[in-house]
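### Sample
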Amino acid sequence: MHHEALQEALPGDNVGFNVKNVAVKDLKRGYVASNSKDDPAKEAANFTAQVIIMNHPGQIGNGYAPVLDCHTSHIAVKFAEILTKIDRRSGKELEKEPKFLKNGDAGFVKMVPSKPMVVETFSDYPPLGRFAVRDMRQTVAVGVIKSVEKKDPSGAKVTKSAAKKGGK
């Protein structure tokens, strides 16, 4: 499988590839490659996720800023707003806009990344839609992304060939 030329890669395949006209120093951990003509990757302004608190010594409230590990990204996010507290098993809403979540609780949270980050809903792209929340050198929560509000990609870097094809 390694160092083997392939005509096509399917979802879930782990592949390496070369990109013309892009320097290695311009690429960073967490970048996402996508088809510019078919649902291109875009930076997330914020996203709503279903989160289960597993291992936090206190309470998690609005403004909490841990590190989110999603695909290969490790980026600080802010729990901007805890929207609801839900029953872990049934998914039924228990409380609207709770003040905090604690160990064993589950809820829907609006999160805002501190740096540019590409995420997708778990239902559309599972590898880009599941995450772990880390703080104090341990995993404190896990979750899946339910919805994403994307930023306008006007400042995004585009390769010359993609720009040419987009102009046709």
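The first strand starts at residue 44 and ends at 53. This sample (GTP-eEF1A C-terminal domain-containing protein) is used throughout the tutorial notebook.
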